[in-house]
Amino acid sequence: MHDLDLLESRSVYILREAFSKLRPLAMLWSLGKDSNVMIWLAKKAFLGKVPFPVMHLDTGLEFPETYAFRERYAREWQLDLIADPCPPIEAVDQSLPPDARLAARKSLGVTQAVARYGLKGLIAGIRRDEQATRAKERVFSPRGAGNTWNFRAQPPEFWDMFAADVPPGAHVRVHPLLHWTEIDIWRYIKREGIPLVPLYFAKDGERFRSLGEIGITRPIKSAAASVDDIIAELKTTRAAERAGRTMDHESEDAFERLRTSGYL
Amino acid sequence: MTGTETFSAGAFPIVIVGHVDHGKSTLIGRLLNDTGSLPDGKAEELRQVSQRRGGPVEWSFALDSLQLERDQAITIDSTQIWFTSAARRYVIIDAPGHGEFLRNMITGAAQAEAAVIVVDAVQGLTDQTKRHAYLLHLLGVTKVILAVNKMDKVAFDEKVYARLKAESQSHLGSLGLALVHAVPIAAREGDNLAQRSPRMPWWHGPTLIEALDALPRRRVAADQPFRLAVQDVYRDGEERIVVGRIEAGRLRIGDAVRFWPTGRTARIKSFQGWSAATPILGAAAPQSVAFTLDDDLFVERGHVAAEPERGPRLSAVVRVRVFWLGQGPLAVGRSLTLRVGTAVTPVRVTAIHRVLDVADLAFADSSAVATNDIAEISLSAATPLTFDLFRDHDALGRGVLIDGQDVVAGCVIDADDAATAAHVGPGSGAVIWLAGLSGAGKTTLAAGLRRELAGRGVHAVVLDGDVLRRGLNADLGFSPLDRAENLRRAAELAKLLAADGAVVIAALISPTAADRRRVREIVGAGFHEVFVNADLATCEARDVKGLYAKARAGEVGEFTGVSGAWEPPTAPDLELNTALDPVETCVRRLTAYVESRVLLARATISPDPARAVG
Question: Which residues of chain A make contact with B390, given a CB cutoff of 8 A?
């Protein structure tokens, strides 16, 4: 069996566990490469149609290419799209550094969406190899009533027997891509022919390796203009995937603070 | 494809365990450095920090704290660490120390294919090391490499290494762990990690990296009997699609599969998929699949699909080895939920046999299991559990115990524990649901069956529709909604009584297929649908209660078969025709059915002669 089949099979298992145990359930669709892979996997798990809403936390600050992608594929993939606007920047914790504040609009957006739709489960496309605090995550990660994450007191999780019952007011973050690495994602995109926002591919010597909002995401120097080029580039790079996400680097603990208070 | 197959590529998952001070973090840090897996500048930074402190390079700083490891690079974090040897990619599933160590270690080790046990050359095997080794064995990690660390502290003495290796070998061997290699190392200086140590010229074995590279990948035996824990059943129009992951063996179109605990068998009609290049004709472990059956069986989450002739076990009592992670001690009488595969079943701790003393791996008698203890206990369930023994097949031979919302323990199943079964009160109950027209003879047959069962010492309860309507359901009328509620209450009550071990005989008209499917779903395992058949003319001629006359006169609204819907059961578990056969014959057949399908199954579960029935 091919290693991509193994990765796919486990993700499908996780998605089906979530759908079976957590209702109401929704999936976050950031429009980035990982969340497109996740939608693709959901279509595999549920035989062609994603049977729950797909949520885009809209800050209004996405690139025009990203919005165009959303409109096209929400239709083509027959997604039940929820694109509620995120709360304004004035609403977030003002003690965070400026760029983290922009990102915090999304954490607040998640918290409000969970409450608004009474969600018991929220599927997110984070991976362990992206970032140190994400590496500590569980596949089924319980969130307290305030959408908080306590990484020091996480439940044990083994043999893929996930704990899906949560007290009232709490919900479970489900991470079907947790065991994938960046290069796995690209190899799978290549094999399956999954469409992406074109900003990932180099133009005039630059491309986005990690796609976020205008103003807090920077492109990297790269000539990789195709999926094959990107796979080749990743085999040699030693730079971090999220190096272009400015809010990760503003202060020592900015990202950890974002995550414990509900960021993805 | 024949025999076994090997997985290709993918990072090889390993776990590194050992006593907290024996140099685990240093080993990992140095491994990253020596395989060129640290990000640019990191090694230099570590050297400078250490120089300022005036000590040797602290490789463990590479991953010691969240604070330090943050933002460094994609390769470093404290729970999953990637590195690459000349041969392949590895992921170290590391467990950070501190209070939650055991929880994290188990979470990590459960995903690993092999383990490196780090032992300090000076201190040797400690209780903590032994506990970790035992947990590896319970978690099913069987390939182990022993790294005898800090050889510099014993002047690179070959004899110290040889003694520790022999000691570990015999200890691990007694656990069923295969010591694939033992390597003498000094992690801080990189001796025998990626490079052969000039300071141990006597060593001709592999370096640690070479030993890792030599480990074979886990093989999934394709000739293991097929097992699949049903995750869900999806509906696509009229089609019911069963989904789940193949835990062992393989499955092809046309294969017969039997479902546990219902015992129903059907053949695979088709595999369903999306965006598959070619139609799927077969699949093997550990693939996630979706398939349809050639027969419309009742299948639900928690059922196990398996090879008909080599199926799992069924028992209401199991003996398990448990690693208890809950707060406070575990004692007899504790109620928990056991998850095996996708089935969750309420269980009670009925016995604590022995608690493991990790020092000498001896089990001692004890009445309570403390947090982080390993113990042998018995669990008893109200309904039979479907499982394998861990030594036969691991996927359905292990489970987790859940307390409320929390996973509080893992366990592996060692036996059906028939000996204990004799002492734990009632076995599994069942619900014999008699459906049929008014006047078909349901009440008569129910009374006859109860009499027969009582004669065999079996506790049976009759739930008669008319009796229920005079009491429990006195507030209900005969509208479709009230009829549905009438059946729902009866089914819920039947389920409760069956859970307590009773054989429940329910006698209710249950007019439509939907009604009967609903009650079957409520009751779940142990439900038996019996169609008490008599044609309308016969029932009307009997008219014991005079209701048919009233219905014909229009005095009773929606009377089943006359003015209300009646859909005769099309696939009951048993059909009795009271219009053709005398009552005695029907009671005899009904009793024989219950004997073979309920009582005999119980006797198999608990072969103790004291509980043999019939």
Answer: none
Q: What span, in angstroms and rounded, lies between the C-alpha atoms of B307 and B248? A: 10
Long-range CB pairs of B547-556 (<8 Å, 24+ gap) are B547/B438, B547/B439, B548/B438, B548/B439, B556/B478
- Residue A188 has φ and ψ, to the nearest 5°, of -70, -40
DSSP element (H, E) containing B483: helix B480-499
CA A198/CA A208 separation, integer angstroms: 9
Per-residue pLDDT of B47-84, as tens digits, reads 777 777 777 777 776 664 333 333 333 233 346 677 88
Separation of alpha carbons A169 and A147, rounded Å:
9
A122-135 pLDDT, tens digit each: 999 998 877 666 76
Residue with tokens 């992670």: B325
3-state helix, strand, coil in chain B (%, to 5): 30, 30, 40
Token pair 């006597």 is at which residue?
A: B202
Q: Are strands B406-415 and B313-324 parallel, antiparallel or unpaired?
A: antiparallel
Number of neighbours of residue A64 by Cβ within 10 angstroms: 9
Say if residue A142 is preceded by a cis peptide, omega within 30 of 0.
Answer: no
| B524 vs B518: CA distance, rounded Å | 10
Of A129, A135, A248, nearest to B71 by CB-CB distance is A248
- Angle B121-B125-B128 (CA atoms, 0-180°, nearest 5)? 125
CA distances from A92 to A89, A106, A116, A212, A230 (A): 6, 10, 18, 18, 36
Looking at residue B479, its pLDDT comes to 83
Q: What is the DSSP string of B526-566?
A: TEEEEEEE--HHHHHHH-TTSHHHHHHTT-SSS-BTTTB--
Q: What residue in B sits closest to A250 (Cα-Cα)?
A: B71
The answer to whether the CB atoms of B287 and A1 lie below 8 A apart is: yes
- Helix A182-192 and helix A227-236, axial crossing angle in degrees, nearest 10: 160
Strand order in the sheet with B430-435: B460-464, B503-507, B430-435, B527-533, B574-577
Q: Which three-class secondary structure string do you get for B93-153?
A: ECCCCCCCHHHHHHHHHCCCCEEEEEEECCCCCCHHHHHHHHHHHHHCCCEEEEEEECHHH
CA distances from B121 to A211, B168, B194, B304 (A): 49, 12, 19, 48
> Which tokens sit at B578?
């009271």
The DSSP secondary-structure symbol of B49 reads H
Write the DSSP symbol of residue B60.
Answer: G
The SS3 assignment for B227 reads strand
Peptide bond into A198 cis (omega under 30): no
How many DSSP H helices and E strands does chain B contain? 16, 30
User: Pick from A102, A184, A5: which is nearest to B246 by CA?
Assistant: A5
pTM attached to this predicted model: 0.72
Q: Which of B241, B218, B357 is nearest to B305 (CA)?
A: B241
Question: Which ipTM value was assigned to this complex?
Answer: 0.90
SS3 at position B569: coil
pLDDT over 90 at B604, yes or no: no
- What is the DSSP code (8-state) at residue B332? T
Q: Which of A3, A131, A158 shows the shortest C-beta gap to B410? A: A158
Residue ranges of A 97-156 with Cβ closer than 8 A to chain B = 128-136, 138, 142, 152-156
Judging contacts by C-beta atoms under 8 Å, the chain B residues touching residue A45 are 243, 288
Gap from B497 CA to chain A (nearest CA, Å): 26
Which residue in A has a C-alpha nearest to residue B341's C-alpha? A161
CA torsion B361→B362→B366→B370, rounded to 10°? -10
Q: Are A200 and B34 in contact (CB under 8 A)?
A: no
Write the CB contacts of A101 (distance below 8 Å, at least 6 apart in sequence).
A89, A92, A93, A94
Nearest Cα residue to B419 out of B390, B460, B457, B376: B376
Q: What is the pLDDT of residues B16-35, one digit of tens each?
A: 888 877 888 888 888 888 88
